[in-house]
Amino acid sequence: MRKIIVLLTAGVLMVALVGVAFAGGQQEGGEAAMDDDVIVIGHTANNVGIDSYQTTHDRVWTETVAAMDGVETIQLDAGGDVALQLSQVEDLIQQQVDVIAIWPVNGDALVPGAQRAYEAGIPVIIVNSLIAEEGFDYIEGFAGPDTYQQGVNGAIAMIEALDGEGQVVDLMGLPGYVTAIRRSGGFHDYIEENAPGIEIIATEPTDWNRAKATEVMENLLVRFGDEIDGVYVADDNIGIGALNAMREAGVAGDIVMTSACMFGEGYDAMAEGLIYSSNYQSPAEDAINAVEMAVSIANGEEVPFWNFFETPIVTQENMDEYERPNF
Amino acid sequence: MDGSAVNAQAQQDSSASNKPQQEAGSALTVRSFFEKQGLIVAFVVVVAFFAIASDRFLTYTNIMLVLRQVSILGTIAIGMTLVIVAGNFDLSVGSLTSLTAVVAISMHDVVGPIPAMIITLLVGLASGTVAGFLVGKLRLNSLIITLGFLAGLQAVTLIYTGGRYSRIVEPEQTWFGFIGRGFVFGVPMPVIILAILILLFSIILTRTVFGRHVISVGGNPVASRFSGIRDGNTIMATFMISGGLTAVAGIMLGSRLMAAQNYLGQGYEFEVIAGVILGGTSLQGGEGNIFKAFIGILIIGILRNGFLLLGLPYYFQWVAQWVIVVGVVWLDVASKRGKLLA
Amino acid sequence: MKRVLNFFRRQPIWAILLGIIVVTSLFRPDFLAIGNLLNILVQSAVNGMLAIGMTFLMINGYFDLSVGTVMGFTAALTIGLQPLSVPVAIVLAIGAGAAIGAINGFFVAKAKINAFVVTLGSFIGVRGLIYIYTGEDALVGKVYEFFSFGASRVLGIPTLFLIMLAFALIGEFALRRSAHGRRTYAIGGNVEAAENAGIPVDRTVFLNFVLCGTTAAIGGVLLAARLNAATPGLGWPDTNLMTIATVVLGGTSLTGGSGSITRTLGGLFTLGVLYNVLNLFNVQSFYNLLLTGLVLILVVYVDSHLKQRRVRFE
Prior knowledge:
The complex is a heterotrimer. Chain A is α/β, with parallel strands linked by helices. Chain A has 10 helices and 12 strands. In chain A, the strands form 3 sheets. Chain A has a 6-stranded parallel β-sheet, with helices on both faces. In chain A, strands 7-6-8-9 form a 4-stranded parallel β-sheet, sandwiched between helices. Chain A has a two-stranded antiparallel ribbon with strand order 10-12. In chain A, helix 7 (210-224) crosses helix 8 (236-249). The longest helix of chain A is centred in the N-terminal third of the chain and has 24 residues, at 2-25. In chain C, helix 2 (12-27) runs parallel beside helix 14 (261-280) and helix 5 (67-80) packs across helix 12.
């Protein structure tokens, strides 16, 4: 008897849990795949909860689609797991969505997934972070920032600020992740080709984590002391982390910082003169750009392969032209 | 230890310790000293290695830096030591750190620093209480339960923030940052907090009745019950302490950054447990030393700092951790039974 | 009929699985589409492989935290050594996994160090090996046959799943019918009694760790075939915990002495189905995670209560 009670309680609790999960978490778009008049976008994103940019991107995506008639979206979060993303692509193919939009966890590992979608006849667009070149044959195009150029911008600004001479450190994002690689690569390549007087003395990853960035910068400051003239960061979140360490060491204003992507707090720091330059990358624009591209493709329109949206350089001089990022 | 440590393992270890203590009468040879104090030896070796390899390592700035870097994990390790001594595991500390840091920061601008800290501590205690109840009173396996908490608490963090990160809007206007960033007589505040906590809980573990109960429950739960010790309550208390101390760590971390991201504490549980084990706390329960657990955490922190100072890739430290953890524990185990292999 | 009911009573996880399938199908009949079910099968192949070896180990009374990074390491080796030839790469990769299993087994069985410590150490250390080997980059497969093998099907069923199933059947047979299997159960049930009965405890434990490392390695090979790539982050941070959870969910006891691969398969499919269902209903990932956590707690609770009843009446 007791066992039955236990099982029943468990059953009721399970149902309640499931109810909560659905009530709280269910998003639009589950059923729509079966309806022919509605365009369904299947969207799998790298890691929605990892930082504010990605969260804002996800939210704006949902809002943009909600404001459109006849369009639905299935929002999936790969949680940074490569195998999971492949499973999600398979599931989206199974649900016969009209177009699949992927923000890759890893550009190389995604290629089989893109190929599978291609073979199933479902168009694929890549969002924000590039897929490897081998995958280009299977996709309709890319919608996102030109992260390599962002690295180049960071290098240009650094050269200007340092007058072509000095030693810099590079605080990267997540090792192995395309955006981190391209932002760092753009910076490294441009410096090597154009600024013989500047030496990159260290490159360290921070996993996009502010606490990690602080720790890494602290250790670098101990290692190099006042030999560091400039620090290049893959985004402002990392930049603020590094600034924490620099502030405590008393060198916050002395070391030049250029960043590849602007966040709200970076905007504030730039106003104080602590960050020399950054790139204005709006997750909202990113998402809207991608949604529009996806819808166009689903409607059968021709779209250019490369769909970059503008990520202009922002410095103290022109920062008034831009609104403070809200993430 | 119903189900919390694996049965065969428990029987194997206890049969090993039943063997006669051969070295009881033998002199304290240099070799047996090394074997018994594996942790201290490892510590000295590691420090010496980096001091020789890098002239920046033993500077005052760097020492304070490393101490502050490990104070977060060190605080969590205090609670973890108690949980492990009582015979269980707490895998939820990483997610709980994320949650408490987020709560502390997000509440700060809403209700002010002190209420925010109180709320954060309550969140930590609440998590510890529920976990402690499930493990201590309902006697469920702590590995799986706290694994469930690891997932659940991370989910709560994500849902609570909606994925966005939290920050304090006017960091200059509040004293809250002093906890994580301040210095007192040249010593970073988190280090002072950690030192006080280590002292406090070492005394609790070794000199109070509660502490003796914790050791007894971990070492021999059946005998404890027969002596009238309410082991369920004791275990629950260890989890509550773990939750509370993790909340303190979350506050310190949030204060350091004046902001909090959702996955801040991801992976902490393994680092903390590795440090606690390195420090000699037995996974069978019944044995542990809070200060030595801190030394274990410190060694891991030194590896991280040292490798960066030397310009070596960060991932080498993981292999070093493997060697050191297994090596030190092996020496420790070997010294107790008098030979390397059983 | 009575046999069926008995089966569900002894292995409640299958009842739970059935329940979820039935309820879901009522709301979303497309859940039962062949394509969807096949997806679930192939998506569970890798985890299933890891869980096979883990089942042996847990019945023996231990667990292995290093399976996640061993899987990642072998995936990297399988792709990275392709220039030598695919079969050679696979053999070397599996060999590496077995070697790490042997190291773990040596420390646990011979040096008698606690399994948690040993495998936590190798978990962290092997992660370092992955990064050292890959140099932080993703490795991409260049051999078309290997990749198409990973996507292939036999009679419509994904090959990778069939491989896992084959190993599962062999494993279950070995558990129940071989001497090694019997010894595994015996040691897990009562070490001293097993010793007194003359069972070579150390050797059995050692073999089970090697087995666990080997199945983790095979899982890595399957993963590499599926992704045609290997990233340094594979297997971190919680693959090992999810593997243990899969086995426990199935009903294998954490204290050792009981369990089976069939049970583990129950746990495996339940988790796979659960995930698929949540996707189908477009539940936001944050709630997904919450549900996973709560399910784990719930299952342990139910299982412990059922176990107490059993002990009392037997």
